[in-house]
Structure formats: C-alpha cells, structure tokens
Amino acid sequence: MKFLCLAGTGTNPAALQQQLAPTVKDLERDGDHSFHYLAGSVELAESEGLKASYGPAPHFRFLESLWPGATDQQISEAAAGAPGGLTYEDKLRYLERRLPPKTSALLQDVLLSLHRKFEEEGPFDCILGHSEGAVIAATFVIDRLQKSVEANKMVTPRCAVFFNGRSPHTADGKGWVLADESGPLITIPTCHILAYNDPTADGAVALYRLCDDESATVVDHGRGHAIPKDAKSCKLIIRAIRDLMDRTGD
C-alpha cells in the first residue's frame, strides 16, 4: 500500500516521519508498503516554542491560518465569547458571524498540487494526515471523490487515516464542510485516531461524522493532540491501521 502523509501545522516532512516512525517501522515489515511525506509551503517564523514542540526549523503549515483573513488573536477572542453547549458545527457558524469572511486563494493551490501529485506520483492507496494535515487530506478526499464522479477514470484514495482532524474546508476556501448540513461525503473506509482529552477533540468527531459510519472506525489513544509514540498507543494505532487495510482489501 502506498501512503501519502500530510504534516500538521508547525512540522515538516522529517518531523512527521519521526512522529510516525514506530507505526511505519511495524508496517514496513510487510515489505510492500511505502510512505511519502508532505508539508505545507507557508513557512512560520522560527521560535523557541515551535522548536520545543516540533524540533528544528523549518516549520510549515498549508494555509495562512486556521481562519484565513483573521489573526490568531481575533480567532481566540471570538471563540472565547461562544456560548456553552454548542456543537462543533455551531461553534464554526458562530465564528463565521463574528470574523471576517473566510477565504483562502492558497487552498486552491494546495488542492491543485495534491491532484497533480496523485496524477504524477500516484496512485496513492491511502492518504494520512495529522491535525491541519488531516483537514487538508479530508478536503482533498471530498474534492477528489466529487471530481471522480465527473471523470470516471480519475483514481481516488482507497482509504484515509485522520489523526486529530477537524471539519474540512470547502474547496473554494470560503467555508467549512459541516456534517449536519451535508451528511456523509467521505465514502471510502477511514480510521480516526484521536484523544477525547484533546481540547480539539470535538473537531475530530465532526470529521468522523462526515464519513460513512459503516466503514469508519475511531481509536482513542488518550494522549492529547500529538501523535503518541509510547508502546501502548503505538500498538493501538498499528492495529487500527492494519484493520483499515484489511477493510480496504489490502
């Protein structure tokens, strides 16, 4: 199986390779899997915080920010005013009413580059993403599946692994794809690896709700937002990905 792995905010391909090392080492024992790593092109200013969390520079992300057009401070202030008890989807709608219009021309470039990568270096059987990488992966999968309806020879990923994801962007970069509005759109088998003690866990659940519940599984490793590398968590992750591969027919 050929994996395309998308890094989260603040990381780079080498860092993602280190994060996934125990899982990849186990899967590579099969002798017929390959892993290809990709990060965004927006380089973040070097800081001690980024270095401590993700290792040496460079540090990248795919899009300008979580909410293109708004600063991190604006996003934090708007989110702090959200009433309690809202679903994740309602929280995003709340932010949409209080922040500048969300749009990202860069998202079009990111999606185009992923489509091109699939055509020129693929096909990739599985797309895997962590955090922002999971958001971009889900956005791409939905766009690829929809385009494949129009072009029946277009090859799509056969499955996906989402680590600590969130609701994907709409392909035009102007909003979010929300399960309570669209229903399930990701029809390939998926595995959602998350931690319910992660402050962003409701976003990961929202992404799960966009997937076919008959072919989607959830694994709670209990280790927050990072990709854990302890033996117990890695065992859970490896078992979940191998189960996904079995369900995909590999």
UniProtKB/TrEMBL annotation:
One Pfam family linked to the record: FSH1
GO biological process, one term: secondary metabolic process
Gene3D superfamilies from the UniProt entry: alpha/beta hydrolase (3.40.50.1820)
Serine hydrolase domain span: 2-232
Listed PANTHER family: ESTERASE ALNB, ESTERASE OVCA2
Molecular function as annotated in GO: hydrolase activity
Annotated GO CC locations: cytoplasm; nucleus
Membrane-spanning parts: none
Keywords: Hydrolase
UniProt keyword Hydrolase, yes or no: yes
Entries under InterPro entries matching the protein: AB_hydrolase_fold, FSH-like_dom, LovG
Name by which UniProt lists this protein: Serine hydrolase domain-containing protein
